[in-house]
Amino acid sequence: MEKKSTTESTPQVEKSPSGIKQKRKLPEPSFNNSTNVKSSTNDPSLHQGRKRSRPHIDGDWPTHIYIPINFEEKSQEILQKVIKKLAQEDKSNVWHSLIEKNTEVFSLHLSLSRPSFLKTDERDDFINQMRKFIGGVDLSWNWTFTFKSFGGPDK
């Protein structure tokens, strides 16, 4: 017998002053001032156990393009229930939640690029080029998330 459960979550729809429903826009791009970050050592505990694929080099800035993900309370509740259920069914200890660490330092995101390395003097030009490019992009998207659980052939 196939075990199936589906939960859907869509973002809240904002109402304009006239009462008309509107899609909520994605957050504007954030170009964090990474000069405040001091991470010249390889400390896997800061990255869920991951190790650097390339050693730190002063003057090189690992850079990637991403969309930050901020879960609303209802979405967080659903994800926490899913993770708890998966952890109960699968005892491999690989199931954990990053949404509890959803802070500025541990922000969840959807990567749109692979990491590339910029030299210090290339950063400002890169940021300006990205701002120009993103300035012409419509950032209002409608997101739908679906969670499905299927039992294996023995269930």
TrEMBL record:
GO terms, molecular function: 3'-5'-RNA exonuclease activity; lyase activity
Presence of the UniProt keyword NAD in the record: no
Superkingdom assignment: Eukaryota
One GO cellular component term: nucleus
GO aspect biological process, one term: U6 snRNA 3'-end processing
Polar residues compositional bias, start-end: 30-45
Presence of keyword Lipid metabolism: no
Gene3D superfamilies according to UniProt: Cyclic phosphodiesterase
Region (Disordered): 1-61
Keywords for this protein: Hydrolase, Lyase, Nuclease, Nucleus
Family annotation (Pfam families): HVSL
The protein's name: U6 snRNA phosphodiesterase 1
Organism: Puccinia coronata f. sp. avenae
Higher taxonomy: Eukaryota, Fungi, Dikarya, Basidiomycota, Pucciniomycotina
